[in-house]
UniProtKB/TrEMBL annotation:
Mg(2+) binds at D14, D16, D183. Keywords: Hydrolase, Magnesium, Metal-binding. InterPro entries: HAD-like_sf (IPR036412), HAD_hydro_PyrdxlP_Pase-like (IPR006384), HAD_sf (IPR023214), Pase_PHOSPHO-typ (IPR016965). GO terms for biological process: bone mineralization involved in bone maturation. The lineage of its organism: Eukaryota, Metazoa, Chordata, Craniata, Vertebrata. This is PHOP1 phosphatase. Its cofactor is Mg(2+).
Amino acid sequence: MAGPRPPRFLLVFDFDETIVDENSDDSVVRGRALPEPLRQSPQGGGGYNEHMRRVLAFLGEQGVRPAELRAAYENIPLAPGMAELFQLLSKHQELFELVLISDANTFGIEAKLRAAGARSLFRKVFSNPASLDRRGVLTLGPYHSHKCLRCPANMCKAKILAEYLAERAREDVEFQRVLYVGDGANDFCPAGTLRAADVAFPRKGYPMHRLIQESQEKQPGAFQAAVVPWESAVEVARYLQELLRKKC
């Protein structure tokens, strides 16, 4: 007897300022006194991951318990319309395969997705590993190493996406379309690898959107995917509903 048909679409989500409406790292440190060296985060390169490792270590040393950190992540508001988008996707899980690729951390992402009742929608979560050490301090590591010059040293989302598509292809799962929902500069790299049949959903006015626009102006046609900017994830849901109506 034939098994279930594989999903037709791969839907890739970023986390910070995409699924949730703010940067989760900012949410965790809000209202907490940090020493001067930890108040300013580094710009560019791979230093941000290392910076957050030091921040989380400092919070642990100051007695901030894992339950407090978990609550901070759980209380981050979802982006506008994201709950409605998740409701739609929960009704069509046979058609959409969901993965999350984020430069945040696994501890915070898992906490928020479970609090939002959305964890079961995602087949995989790719993020910087975070776990509790013997003292109960949240420790953070880099996701991987890579050779991409555009991305921070700890994570290239394009590499993660390419490896995931290759893994699924080996399992005889081929997607008609890849749909990418994001906001940041590090989402532009994987979005640039999408094909003409695919769709990029950049959050309107955020770095990913601006970089796509600049790319289209400098090299018309170089960015191949269809571009659907959004302010509310309800707009993403409407596009997906139309996609399902067309059955393509």
